[in-house]
Amino acid sequence: MPGCERDLGVRRDRGFVTAETAVVLPVLVMFAMALVWCLLVVAAQIQCVDAARAGARAAARQDPAEAVVAIARAAAPPGASVRVGREADRVRVVVVAGPPLLHGLPFEVREEAVASVEGTKEPGS
Description:
Layout: H1 2-12, H2 16-60, H3 65-75, E1 81-87, E2 90-97, E3 109-116
Antiparallel strand pairs: 1-2, 2-3
Helix pairs in contact: 2-3
């Protein structure tokens, strides 16, 4: 009978949707987690850019070195290191942070900013 054969075919395919979902779902979850992690890395990079620029501006105004580091650390991601250097009439601020969440990965988020030192105005000029 032709009607009975169709019923058997439908019964055999009944579990495939569940099996395919069980295989695809972990892949989708991993993809979503990787996407969120990449967004966190980009956010940390932007924070490093902001911190380096803020530190370079403060150093260009000839603020004390401790104040420059404090300003840069306030804008940097948690646990970031800040280095301030001076080269002739320029200051360089380097901000380095580890990757967010997965701290064991062998790369870092790094940014540096350079600014010209502002001259001090002499009295009477």
